[in-house]
């Protein structure tokens, strides 16, 4: 499946007012006060006053700065609260009737990818939906790893999960850990950091080796090469998120698809279809 070491996330400022929080995000993004001011149609002096607490930003200014700093939706609510305003973005449970259409749409989408594997995960890589292509790859996985909440990172990297079947585990593991680390830096999430530390500590089998396909394949991206019933299947991961989300839950959902990386994988997966 398909995120600099985990310490790359900016430390939380001692003062949790909106000024220090905005400064921490600006420094995390490596943006100067002048550059941020130009982006937000403001002045470096005003940005400085906001960060030092000499000026209280309007609700509109908080949201504008958060937008130009690419602050995740959940953390935008935290900025608003720190500035004395009400949160702007709701966090609707995924099983809420208000999201019925969303859930149905995601289910139709991942089913439409069959026989290719596809799944829906949240910001912690917990699996909320998966199609039959994913279930095919999970044949023989111990029950304790399949107990909800199912976690894609644990399933992939655990020594009793998919890890022993992945022929290029060291390369794929490095890709996944880097992906998680980028997410930690983006979201400054302690739960995600703990998950990173857990899966990074899983042992890597010494006998892990790269697959040797019968015919050389010019891969355009790093594939996951996984054994399944005596065959080596190759997949390229693609991740999609929702554009302009207005809800924290929706903002943190991602749809991952595993696309066949070679003709033999296509042929085999299609043979599984009724």
Secondary structure: elements and pairs:
Blueprint: H1 18-28, H2 33-39, H3 44-52, H4 59-68, H5 73-82, H6 100-112, E1 118-121, E2 127-130, H7 132-137, H8 143-146, H9 152-157, H10 169-187, H11 190-200, E3 224-228, E4 231-241, H12 248-251, E5 254-260, H13 263-271
Antiparallel strand pairs: 1-2, 1-5, 3-4, 4-5
Domain HTH cro/C1-type: 22-76
Organism: Streptomyces cyaneochromogenes
Protein name: XRE family transcriptional regulator
Describe this protein's structure.
- With 274 residues, this protein is an alpha+beta fold.
- It has 13 helices and 5 strands.
- It has a 5-stranded antiparallel sheet with strand order 2-1-5-4-3.
- The protein folds into 2 domains: 6-82, Orthogonal Bundle (434 Repressor (Amino-terminal Domain)), CATH 1.10.260; 98-206 and 217-271, 2-Layer Sandwich (Beta-Lactamase).
- The protein has helices at 18-28, 33-39, 44-52, 59-68, 73-82, 100-112, 132-137, 143-146, 152-157, 169-187, 190-200, 248-251, 263-271; strands at residues 118-121, 127-130, 224-228, 231-241, 254-260.
- Mean pLDDT is 89; it is low at 1-14 and 209-215.
Q: What composes the largest sheet?
A: 5 strands, antiparallel
- State the secondary-structure class: alpha+beta
CATH topology of the largest domain: Beta-Lactamase
Q: What is the CATH level 1 assignment of the largest domain?
A: Alpha Beta
Query: How much beta, percentage-wise?
Result: 5-15%
Overall domain count: 2
Q: Percent of residues in helical segments? A: 40-55%
Radius of gyration: 22 Å
User: Any guess at the CATH architecture of the largest domain?
Assistant: 2-Layer Sandwich
Shape: elongated
- Taking the alpha carbons of the first and last residues, their distance comes to 25 Å
Give the overall average pLDDT: 89
GO molecular function: DNA binding
Protein name: XRE family transcriptional regulator
Domain HTH cro/C1-type: 22-76
Pfam family, one: MLTR_LBD
């Amino acid at each position: 499946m398909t995120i600099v070491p985990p310490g790359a996330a900016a430390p939380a400022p001692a003062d949790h007012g909106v000024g220090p929080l905005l400064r921490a995000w600006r420094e995390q993004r490596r943006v100067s006060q002048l550059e941020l001011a130009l982006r937000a149609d403001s002045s470096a002096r005003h940005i400085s006053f906001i960060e030092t607490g000499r000026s209280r930003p309007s609700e509109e200014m908080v949201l504008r700065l958060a937008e130009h700093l690419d602050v995740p939706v959940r953390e935008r609510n935290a900025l608003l609260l720190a500035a004395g305003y009400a949160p702007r973005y709701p966090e609707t449970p995924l099983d809420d009737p208000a999201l019925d259409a969303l859930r149905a749409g995601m289910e139709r989408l991942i089913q439409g990818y069959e026989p290719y594997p596809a799944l829906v995960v949240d910001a912690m890589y917990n699996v909320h939906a998966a199609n039959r292509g994913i279930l095919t790859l999970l044949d023989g996985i111990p029950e304790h790893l399949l107990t909800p909440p199912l976690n894609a990172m644990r399933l992939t990297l655990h020594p009793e999960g998919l890890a022993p079947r992945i022929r290029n585990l060291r390369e794929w593991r490095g890709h996944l850990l880097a992906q998680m680390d980028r997410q930690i830096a983006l979201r400054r999430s302690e739960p995600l950091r703990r998950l990173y530390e857990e899966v990074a500590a899983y042992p890597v089998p010494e006998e892990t080796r790269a697959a040797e396909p019968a015919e050389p394949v010019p891969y355009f991206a790093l594939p996951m090469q996984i054994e399944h019933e005596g065959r080596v299947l190759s997949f390229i991961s693609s991740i999609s998120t929702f554009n302009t989300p207005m809800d924290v839950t929706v903002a943190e959902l991602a749809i991952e698809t595993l696309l066949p990386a070679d003709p033999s994988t296509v042929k085999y997966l299609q043979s599984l279809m009724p």
